[in-house]
Amino acid sequence: MRIFDPHIHMTSRTTDDYEAMHAAGVRAVVEPSFWLGQPRTCPASFFDYFDALLGWEPFRAAQYGIAHHCTLALNPKEANDPRCTPVLDALPRYLVKDGVVAVGEIGYDSMTPAEDAALAAQLQLAADHGLPALVHTPHRDKLAGLHRTLDCVHESSLPMDRVLLDHLNETTVKDAKDSGCWLGFSVYPDTKMDEDRMVGILRAYGTEKVLVNSAADWGKSDPLKTREVADAMLAAGFGEDDVDQVLWRNPVAFYGLSGRLRLDVPEANGLHEGNSVLRGGE
Ligand SMILES: [Zn+2]
């Protein structure tokens, strides 16, 4: 079984996670830039983070046989902080880099005017750079958040079929599917979607344009949830081809819209800017 986790924050995870993911079948990941859990105080703090997502983290993933790409953006929460919004002006020089396969994650957190402006600006950046967009839908007030998101996409010059709407659930899936966007589902322990609910959604809405991710980060989350969904699909009577479509071919097709997806894992030996994953240069 081959698995592509299209939304996971590996910066927050350990090498044990990489090992376990590879053993479970994960061969490719996309890491969206996001909120680090505490506010950043200046754009330079974002730039160091973006550089890590483009350099160190793909290097680290390669040690474990996993291809790593990223999506870059000013995240919805920090779009409200005037100390951070100058990041928008610097994004064009990052969006041309080979490892960037979408603009993201963008979207709404609290649905403020500042978030409106950042979302519109970044949808335009995606259109200008020939990139698709990964759009986070809000965790509170989900249906209203989805509709406001879709309005913003409609007003942009980015076509619906280059947008992945993420963190969907039973409340939002129908309208999201009707919009023509790609459909992303984050499967977490305890909260939000679980693997059985995910199987129910796949039964009701089919496998076309559906992506499943673990969205694992620094919070309570599980980087093996993609595999658990695959196993739950098989147990529920879906075929191996259905599993391959949802867990591999759909994310490959969506991020492939960037023209930059490289699924061969780079040579694992060597150094990244003089540093290895080994301590003390062993
Ligand atoms: Zn995320």
From TrEMBL:
<dbReference type="Pfam" id="PF01026">
    <property type="entry name" value="TatD_DNase"/>
</dbReference>
<dbReference type="GO" id="GO:0046872">
    <property type="term" value="F:metal ion binding"/>
</dbReference>
<dbReference type="InterPro" id="IPR032466">
    <property type="entry name" value="Metal_Hydrolase"/>
</dbReference>
<dbReference type="GO" id="GO:0016788">
    <property type="term" value="F:hydrolase activity, acting on ester bonds"/>
</dbReference>
<keyword id="KW-0378">Hydrolase</keyword>
<comment type="similarity">
    <text>Belongs to the metallo-dependent hydrolases superfamily.</text>
</comment>
<dbReference type="InterPro" id="IPR012022">
    <property type="entry name" value="UCP005295"/>
</dbReference>
<dbReference type="InterPro" id="IPR001130">
    <property type="entry name" value="TatD-like"/>
</dbReference>
<protein>
    <submittedName>
        <fullName>Hydrolase TatD</fullName>
    </submittedName>
</protein>
<keyword id="KW-0479">Metal-binding</keyword>
